[in-house]
Amino acid sequence: MGPLVPDIITDQMNLVIALLLGIAFGFVLEQAGFSSSRKLTGLFYGTDFTVLRVFFTAGVTAMSGVIILTQMGWLDADLIYINPMFLQSAIVGGAIMGVGFVVGGFCPGTSFCAAAVGRIDGMAFAAGGLLGIFAFGEAFPWVENLYKAGSKGDLLVSTALGISNGQFAGIMIGVAVVAFIFTTRVEKRVNAQSGALQFPVTRHRIAGAVLVVLAVILFFVPDRKARLTAEAASTMNSVRTMAPDELAIHIMDRDPKFQLVDVRDATSFGKTTLPGAINMPASMLIGKESRNSLADSRTEKVFFGRDTAEGIRAAALARLTGSENVAALAGGFEGFMATVVNPRGLDGADADTRVFRARASGEIAAMIRQSSAPKPVKAIRRVQGGCGG
Fold first, then answer.
1. Which of 205, 276, 289, 327 is the most buried (most CB within 10 A)?
2. What is the C-alpha to C-alpha distance for residues 297 and 291, in angstroms, rounded to an integer?
């Protein structure tokens, strides 16, 4: 499955898993009472806060799970689809959906849940929703500007606030706990038949305490990228460096157990690179792409950037994310070109070095000219999707 770093779910199984998850989602909605318009609209009248508790619980669980799995290196959060943010259209659309929710008693997802169990009002709401989709499609040329108004891209709330995902999760868990306590008290006072009156107090207090502990942990856990980058910087001295002449021998021998990794930006890579190199900027080394492309421990992987330091940092980072048998090119790309491909300053070199570099210069320059246009490692695309409510 796309974002999972270990490929424990194949592409062929994705649709099967999606079907099973959809069935489970519908079952949970029904068990939570979301096929009842009275229970759903009870949120607006203060008589039943099941909707708030269920969706807050689902949000906190998913958010915490994503952060924890990302920290463990089991999930590549960069591959998770994010619905683009259109501020003005979101405000207008939210207002329309809110009115529809209060008047009709359902949101799109819960209306299908109700229709599936045979409720007439759910069927009517779902049919109206489908009619609205058709009408919107027909009217789209007239509302396109509003539909795209206020584009903010793939904006996260944490990014907008300038805090880490863990800090935002900690804050949201705290808000959820407070909301659970407050709405439960309101519901008990307003609704004499509330199910909240039957809540086991001790177990709920323990669950609340666990959530508070989780919130504190997530709040202070550093972002995985920042943590790995800092760790890589502290372990750079232990990365083996490879001299340009040694690398030239591997290139000329076309060593099959040897892989060059160009960590420069895609523009620089596209102009020219070393024969057989793949392009993998530092931002890709933490994600799933590096695991797929650099997984073979028997292959020696030599990282190079503009200079020595850039290659060493990349090699150290790749080692932390699971790559084995790594090294960095001394002098980087520019140093290799000046030493081997376009050698200069050989007056002080011994005869063997002068002979070798003269040969290497011609052969490697020819290999660079003859190689096809370099192609970067294909980034894994996010699977587009999203919840329609």
1. 289
2. 11
Pair 360, 340: CB distance under 8 Å: yes
Name the 3-class secondary structure at 349: coil
CA distance 183 to 187: 6
Distance CA 5, CA 10 (A): 12
Which class in CATH covers the domain with range 231-370? alpha beta
pTM metric for this prediction: 0.75
Which tokens in the block code for residue 41?
């609209």
* DSSP β-bridge partners for residue 242: 329
Span between the terminal Cα atoms of the chain, in Å:
23
CA–CA distances in Å: residue 289 to residues 11, 76, 278, 283, 284: 16, 9, 12, 10, 6
d(CA 155, CA 149): 15
Contact 244, 198 (CB under 8 A): no
Report the number of secondary-structure helices (H) and strands (E) in the chain: 17, 7
Q: How far is 284 from 69, CA to CA, in rounded Å?
A: 18
How far apart are alpha carbons 78 and 55 in whole angstroms?
Answer: 24
How far is the C-alpha of 1 from the C-alpha of 380, rounded, in Å? 11
Contact 244, 330 (CB under 8 A): yes
Quick check: helix, strand or coil at residue 85? strand
pLDDT in tens, 61-84: 999 998 998 888 788 777 788 888
Helices 224-234 & 308-320, crossing angle to 10 degrees? 120
Span 280-307, pLDDT tens digits: 888 788 877 666 678 777 889 999 999 9
pLDDT single digits (tens) 140-165: 999 999 888 888 888 888 888 889 88
What is the rounded distance in angstroms from the CA atom of residue 290 to the CA atom of residue 242?
Answer: 21
102: which 2 tokens? 């209060």
DSSP calls for 296-337: -TTSEEEEE-SSHHHHHHHHHHHHHTT--SEEEETTHHHHHI
Domain residue extents for the chain: 11-222, 231-370
User: Which among 263, 236, 283, 288 has a CA at the least distance from the CA of 73?
Assistant: 288
**Partners of 12 in the β-ladder:** none
